[in-house]
Amino acid sequence: MSKVARQLKFLNKISSTTTDAQVILSPGKYQRLSLTFQTKNHNGHMGARKFWKDYLPTIQFYNPQLRIDVTRIKNESKTVSVPCTLQAIGTDGKVVEEIDMSNKHAPEILQSLLQKLDHERVPESQIISVGTQSA
């Protein structure tokens, strides 16, 4: 696969094929999202990492005004606990909602986020798909 084809595939993953995350969060309510999890998958942090990789780019794409902070903590110990949280910060700078992402799969984290935050689906007419380039 050529470099251009890989880039087009990646752009389409962000903009058009990750359908569950195609939402617009209420801009009058949320200033930013803040994720905290460890760099390693142990202690139940794999779902948080997959959420960050698979769903967060699409949320950011359709909410360009939303600031997203990601704090990844290096923790080699399997016995030391590191927070695994997703926080929605309101326009007043205070935590509006918090989701414990520990031991949850990425789709579960997304569903929890959508249940707790005011949002609307991106209308079908506004879904962006990048055309493919012929060889």
From TrEMBL:
Q: Which InterPro entries match?
A: Ribosomal_mL43/mS25/NADH_DH, Ribosomal_mS25/mL61, Thioredoxin-like_sf
Give the UniProt subcellular location, in the record's own words: Mitochondrion
Which SMART domains is this protein grouped with? L51_S25_CI-B8
Which UniProt keywords are listed?
Answer: Mitochondrion, Ribonucleoprotein, Ribosomal protein
Q: Answer whether the UniProt record assigns the keyword Endoplasmic reticulum to this protein.
A: no
The chain positions of domain Ribosomal protein/NADH dehydrogenase read 40-120
Question: Cellular component terms, GO, for this chain's entry?
Answer: mitochondrial large ribosomal subunit
Q: Name one Pfam family in it.
A: L51_S25_CI-B8
Which GO terms of the molecular function aspect are on file?
A: structural constituent of ribosome
What is the protein named? Ribosomal protein/NADH dehydrogenase domain-containing protein
Please report the organism this UniProt entry assigns to the protein. Candida glabrata (strain ATCC 2001 / BCRC 20586 / JCM 3761 / NBRC 0622 / NRRL Y-65 / CBS 138) (Yeast)
